[in-house]
Design a protein that fits this description.
The complex is a heterodimer of chains A (579) and B (838). Chain A has 579 residues and is mainly alpha-helical. Chain A has 23 helices and two strands. The longest helix of chain A has 36 residues. Classes of the chains: A mainly alpha (579), B mainly alpha (838).
Amino acid sequence: MENGPEQDRKELRLYEAGNWFPPLMAGILVVTGLLVYLNYEFIVHHFYLPFISTPLEVFASTYRAYFLLLPEMLDLAGGILILLMDMIRPNKNRLRAPLTAQVTLILSYFPVIFTMYLTTRYFNAALGQYWGGLETIDPFSLFLKSIVLLTVNYVVVIAMRSKELPEKFSGEFYAFLMFAVVAVECVVSSSDILAIFLLTEFVAITSYILVGWLKNRPTSTEAALKYFLLGSMSSAFMVFGFAIMYGLSGTTNLYEMKVALHEVRMQDPSMVPVMLLSTLFFMVGIGFKLAIAPFHMYLPDVFEGAPTAIATFLSVTPKLATTAVFIRVFLLGLSTVADLWVPMMLICAVLSMTIGNLFAIRQTNMKRFLAFSSITHMGYMLLGLCAAGVIAKTNSNAAIQSLGYFGMLHYMVIYAIMNTGIFLIVSVVEHHSGGSHLDHFKGLVHRAPPSAYTMLVCLLSLAGIPPLAGFMAKFFVMWPLFEPNVELYPLAIIAILNMVVSAYIYLRIIKAMFLDKPMVEERFYPDTTYRYAMIPPFAFLALYLFGGYLIRWAYAYASSSYFLTINIYFGSSGPTGGL
Amino acid sequence: MLEALLKYPETLAHWIVALPFLSFVFITLKLTINKNVDPKPKDESEKELSPDLKKLQTSVMQGYMWPIIALVGLLGFLFLKSRLGEAAGGISINSVIMPVIWIVLLVAIFWPTNSRHWIQKYAPYISVGAMAIGAIIATSLWIKTVQEGLYPGHATPDTEIWKEAWKINWYGIGDFTLPIGIKLDGFAIFGVWMVTVVAMCIQWFSIGYIWDDDYGRKHFGRYFAKHSLFATGMLMVVLSDNILTFLIGWEVMGLCSYLLIGFFTYKPSANAAQIKAFITTRIGDVGFMLGIFMLGLMFTYANDPTLPFSFDFEHIKEVLYKYDWAKANLGWLPTAAALLIFMGAVGKSAQFPLHVWLPDAMEGPTPVSALIHAATMVAAGVFLVVRFFWLFEMSPTAMLTVAWIGAITAFGAATIGVVQYDIKRILAYSTISQLGYMMIGLGVGSATAGMFHLLTHAYFKALLFLGSGAVIYGCRHIQDIRYMGGLSKRMPITYWTFLAGTLALAGIFPFAGFWSKDEILASVFHMAQHGYSRIVGHGEHAESILMIPAHWSFYIIFILGIAGAFLTAFYMFRLIAYTFLGRHKNYEYRGEQSPDYGHHAHGEDNTEAYDKWTVPPGPLEKEEHDLGHPVEPREVPPSMWIPLVILAIFATVYGFMGTPLFGEGGNLIAKFLNHGYPHYPELDWLTAGLMGSSLLIALLGVHFGLKINNTEAGAVWKDNLKAKYAGLYRAVYNKYFVDEFYEEYIIQPVFFVAQMARAFDTYIVDGIVNAAGWLTYMIAKLHGWWDNVVIDGFVNGLAWIVGFFSDLTKPIQSGYVQNYMMVIIIFVLFYLLSLFIR
């Protein structure tokens, strides 16, 4: 056929149809995903374990201690490989480094999931302390590791297509990212204050470098410097707190510290102010890492200055690690002195929720907006810790305590997925409109409908609108507040009021996307990688209500309270036995 | 070679289902994911090729496809074998194959090629390859079964593996579990062998057939994807051990028949046919569903009512057999359930009165017709009755209904087949007729004979349909047999293979159809003489219960069957005479006007010439114009005749499995398709007499078929007969006006009711709704005033206050590091002070 207007129209139609294929595919993938979701057990037993079991089981039983660090070692090797490749043949292919990183990350899922399988099948096969008590491998850490790997996959996806990252030295960028991931993976399984301090510093230092990656952008350098100065100060606080803890208890191991602090307190009540001091200093240090309220000031500047990929990384991955540290230190090492830190935590939670919301109201820069939003969400997340802390002191009711940190974990997982989804869209819009101001989001639904709808679901989920995942997260984190012996009703009321305000701030973005006129009418078509990457957050957040499996799974892992009580191998079947 | 592999029969069987499904998924995803525009600009050199050179190229490509397929299959098996050496070492077979295949599939799906272009061309490699591997697996399973006589119910301690069903828990809520699995009894093993081999041959044939068509070439990938899915559905039905997956496969087939019958989307007639097929079978499916619910009801009656319904065939059977329904005055329940389930079979297997969709389904591509008629769609209905045979056995009424419906269909369809002129329609009516025979066999209690006829029929009917496809291909899409003739010299391979299929269908010794049809007729005779008894209990406790007494009316079924056999032989040799014998009549008929082409629902006066959608506008004329000389019918390329030869071999020798030549103490069919079901009669003088007489009848049919249609005298006789019995001829020619009856008494009244309902909806319901809407609107206006002035004032005030505080606190976020540090220090100091001052 000749090229006439008829043919052109046909081709145009085909092209437009082509752009609707990803949503179609999303449908197929969602169905497949749901099947996977419902048949997780079947899929693992027939498509994963037969493949992996024999060689890995032999390896695992022979070199157990090394095997349990296999994910970290793989990621480390991946980082070094990227550096080496970059050194030998620089700038060969701009996708080489990210793809290597991605493959490494995916490979390191295998040992993580396999170890989960071991822990559930042979109850105590993998559990316990290794490397002289520095690392504890338990369901809790394995769960968090898998989520960490997932988020970093997204970070690499965002970085891979980013325009702002220079192609030069891209290998080093991904290498540093991989090293940061190694550190994060180690942090989530640390059970020793020495390891915690060193590894959080490891994460922080790589983050400083990554934030300041864009040397030509003044805000980036400025952000890195600010981050570095404030981070150093907070580290000083933290190490001071740790020093006092060590002085009081005579040990760095958190399991031993729990017992030792209790004994010290019983024998010498005059030590309580010192304990309080150490707790406060630790709180300052670690609160800075999590960016909760009075220590949050750096976050908007850093998000604004850093490359979008790194902002994504900072908003999710180190926070998962820090959450693990919060749970381990406060609910394990300091659980016997919980009455000292709970008021502090309450204040921080209330301040985070309120300040984050108030500052987010008038923000027009999306990244700053998301920084404040993340501060708010960390405040919500702390509600679970408060409840668990109250219970830890007044009544050692393990069930309610586990409700508390189940809420935290659950919240963090959903928060991670919501935030990666939003940052994904932000990077898409930056890529095509050249900025992340609110104006760039105006009329997004006319310009890139799938992106706009994904963003809609993420935002509504962040606001906690009922059928979406964010609502479930908030529900489970606030549930323990109403339990007997906790009864933190004022806190709950403040949280609910803040949720109302946050609905306003998120609806503001939604209004811009759906009701305002776009600055440029032209449609744009995100890259295929982005389009596929949008599907999982969308599906997960929208369909979460139907997937009771993850709730059960997370609950089984999080409520395995033995990781707080028993410091060496144990023999009980535990709640995950039936998994 | 397959020793190690055959230790895992259920796993292998699972792969038979999985492979075609994976090829469907693969092709569909490839077609869907990748860029929708053909990225390759058309090659200039391709344009310059003359049409016949292009055809040559095409046929060469198809001819070389089979060694490649064979090579892929061989390599796959060598690979499996090498890995299976390790199987003895303890690694399970799944651990090796499953991940490899899944990973390869995933990599292949997301492999960044210009794959839309690629997949359009190479889709058949995938789907035929998958079916070929399935066929190899199924064949080896069958050989193993035959060699070692291993099948459920006869398991020895060495063969316990055969009892271990490949069962998984598909779904579970609380105590309720839903195990699904694979049932490998004789029926399944023979069935799966048939389905894979036939479907492979059909797909292989389709490559050339569809590539020849302009539309088909553009939708090559889509065609093969649907084909694979269709085969998957049937394999699932055959291998299921529970109602649930059976139903899934059943419905998948319904969907695929809809999609494939309407494959030529530009044809309105194809569209109408696909809708008709889907809706007609759906009417039967309603009964099937109700039957399943009825089974659930019975299950709760017979069992503890608190227990959930089990979908497992064996489980339901055990529970239902334990309960004495007659004693509880609930004898109608098994009857109702069996009849409702039979409704599903009536729809799917095109039995009277739901047979109307099958002839219309001829609008699809010919290989699709082959698939529907032989291996998949219609066989599923018979297989349904086989799987629920224990339920039919509980109710004499249901058994009699099955037998009588079968008899009516077998005879009626055979008469219609006699007067058709469309080559595919003749075969379609013969299919309906043969399905009727199967139903007779089942209805008189011989599941063995019914299933045997299903198997032999699948091979020779696939052969006949593919042969008709070859004829249509050769004659450039002419389907009317009056335009053909003399093809035996022009298409020799097609002719000889088609003849083998015809002899098999006509029931001539020693072809496959003879043995199986004779089994059915012998069973009917046995029923008429001795009645039907069922064996209850196992081993020493087994006792025979007379279910249906001997009765003279069964002789009527027998006579109908014999008459049908005569008619079958007659119309098949009429077809042969018209198509392959005599002289080539194409040009003669083209000279005339009003060739009375095709078949029209209203009236016999078909003066409108070509249906422009059924026959593409002048294929011969166009080609002759292009070439500059007349076109002769051509023989098909090797990729199309090799499947024909394979099927012809089956059609010739398959029947011997039903003879005492094979197997010890009986024959293979009796041994493997007989488990738990009553045996059909032994070989004695009576049976031999029946065999002889049915052969005689069939030979008579052959004689008359050739005599009337292939000689001058016969033509005169035919015209005289037509004139003498004009009324009868008219009725038969118009298929006894069944379609018209449905149109007049069912479709029109339904339309009328629908129009009334629409009028009610438009004027009355909508009126009420609109009135309510108006009222609401007025109330909303009032409310809106309140909202705008009072509530919004309040809310906006709040928002203003919040914004005001936000503005107040904004300066704190100054951007100075020292300020940030200050905030932290102030917090620490404040906190400490507040504690110590207290």
